[in-house]
Structures are given as structure tokens and as C-alpha cells.
User: Which sequence fits this backbone?
């Protein structure tokens, strides 16, 4: 019954919840009516095309989701007692870091946790924080995740910012680079939806470098591809270049007053805690991040 209610709240429709759960819509509707009669309150507003939680419904759904999380944790603990390694781990991550970290995590899990289901979702930073706080994800991985009393930080990994370019670029032999060195070359800049984009735009403005004619994108893939183009400079965090630093792309960090870093943070929901399986995956993620930075 709790699962039915949770799915209806997420789907906004008994019909859609019925399709997702494989349960007859009439059965789900009867459960909701029974709950409303039990508590003497209306849980949903019946709008023309969807259902919307009432204030009473919002209060109940918070309790329902916490109960479901507690039950999932209890099941995982029972599995641990039986000597088996299974469960589900849900990770919300910014998109750019996924191809750097997750393939190594998948390889580790195949050998060490083959029965664990891993769910990885790419999300922008604000959605990532909301997913962890709201219990939609067990772990969150992103840059500059803001302090939140509902979150605990499990790992902090600093990453330098810099330029990526083809090996034959005139600036590719430098050990460090300044923003002024980049003037005169075609530049592709992360846009303000990415934390690196905000940091770079502020730095460019402080250096009195015009940003009006620069190409902007929120696609890490396009930034990586642009860095390999002749004479072009793109900007990324060093961690995100690990999977692309090869014969065709080099990373040159900023120097001096242009030196910028951002912190990659691994977070979890403070009050819910992690079960044994989730804690084991979080520990492996911490190790992977440390090895990536030190390599």
C-alpha cells in the first residue's frame, strides 16, 4: 500500500502508476480511498489531468518514503547477515564526471559486488542535491555542492581548472597557462549552468577579457571535442580530462592569479544513513577519486 501511494505521488496519476507497477488502477484507487478514510483527510486533489498531493498528503508521503527507505535498509542488513552481497545503490552525479569514475566502479563491482544493482543518473547540481536530500539517490557526486544540514560530505577532492588543446597547439608545451595567454585563439567556454563556467566567466571579467564572442556550451562532450580542434582552446576541470588526456588532447593548468580549483564532493543524506552495501560502494568511490587525482 505504501509503495502504491509513493508511485501515485511520483507519477501524478493512478493510470501511470498502474502501468509502472503492473497493478490494476482500481486496486490502487481503493487503497488510496481506504487510507483517506482511515486518517479522515484528503490525500490528493483530483485535478482534470492529474492528482496533486494536499498538505495532508505531503505530510504522509514524507513518512511513507522514510518508512520505505528504512525497510530497504533492513532488507539489506538481513542479506548481510545471510552472508550474501546484494542490494541497490543509486548515485546522482553531474554528467561530466560519470565517464571518468563510473567505468572503474562498474569493473570493481563485477568482481566484488556482482549481485548489487547500480543505478547512475546524470543530473545538474540543483537536481542532484534535491535527489539526495529527498531520498531519490543514496549518494551524490558533484562540484561545489553547497553546505546543507541534511547532507554529510563523505569525500572532498580538489581539481585544478585549466585549458585543453591539441598537442600541436602553440600553447601545449607550457607547464601552466594564464587567461591572457589564451587571447587570440578560438575559445570554447563552459556556460553558467556548470560551476566551472561561473568561475571562468568571473575570472575572464576580472582579467578584462571580453566574453561576448566566445562559444559557450553546457556539454562536457563538446568541450572535450573542441579541445582537440586545431588552434582551439577549451576549458575543463582536470578530473574530467582523465578519460580524454591522450595523444590528441593535453591539459594545461592555470597559473598565478588565474589559478582556479573546484572541489568534487561525494555526499549522502545525513538522517537516513547508508546500509552496508551502500557504505561499501561509497568507500570504493572515495578510493577511486583519490587514485584519479594522484595519477
Assistant:
Amino acid at each position: 500500500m505504501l509503495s502504491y501511494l509513493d508511485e501515485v505521488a511520483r507519477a501524478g496519476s493512478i493510470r501511470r502508476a498502474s502501468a509502472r507497477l503492473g497493478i490494476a488502477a482500481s486496486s490502487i484507487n481503493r487503497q488510496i480511498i481506504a487510507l483517506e478514510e482511515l486518517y479522515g483527510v484528503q490525500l490528493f486533489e483530483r485535478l482534470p489531468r492529474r492528482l496533486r498531493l494536499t498538505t495532508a498528503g505531503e505530510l504522509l508521503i514524507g513518512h511513507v518514503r522514510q518508512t520505505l527507505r528504512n525497510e530497504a535498509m533492513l532488507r539489506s542488513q538481513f542479506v548481510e547477515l545471510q552472508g550474501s552481497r546484494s542490494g541497490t545503490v543509486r548515485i546522482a552525479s553531474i554528467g561530466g564526471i560519470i565517464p571518468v569514475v563510473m567505468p572503474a566502479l562498474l569493473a570493481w563491482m563485477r568482481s566484488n559486488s556482482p549481485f548489487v544493482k547500480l543505478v547512475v543518473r546524470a543530473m545538474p547540481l540543483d537536481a542532484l542535491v534535491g535527489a539526495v536530500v529527498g531520498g531519490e539517490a543514496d549518494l551524490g557526486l558533484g562540484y561545489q555542492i553547497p553546505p546543507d544540514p541534511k547532507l554529510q560530505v563523505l569525500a572532498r577532492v580538489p581539481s585544478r581548472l585549466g585549458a585543453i588543446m591539441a598537442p600541436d597547439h602553440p600553447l601545449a608545451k607550457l607547464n601552466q597557462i594564464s587567461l591572457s595567454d589564451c587571447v587570440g585563439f578560438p575559445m570554447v567556454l563552459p556556460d553558467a549552468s556548470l560551476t566551472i563556467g561561473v568561475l571562468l566567466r568571473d575570472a575572464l571579467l576580472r582579467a578584462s577579457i571580453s566574453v561576448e564572442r566566445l562559444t559557450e556550451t553546457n556539454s562536457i562532450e563538446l568541450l572535450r571535442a573542441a579541445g582537440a580542434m586545431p588552434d582551439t582552446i577549451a576549458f575543463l576541470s582536470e578530473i574530467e580530462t582523465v578519460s580524454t588526456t591522450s595523444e590528441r588532447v593535453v591539459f594545461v593548468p592555470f597559473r598565478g592569479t588565474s589559478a582556479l580549483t573546484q572541489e568534487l564532493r561525494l555526499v549522502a543524506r545525513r538522517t537516513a544513513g547508508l546500509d552496508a552495501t551502500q557504505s561499501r560502494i561509497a568507500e570504493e568511490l572515495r578510493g577511486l577519486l583519490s587514485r584519479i587525482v594522484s595519477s
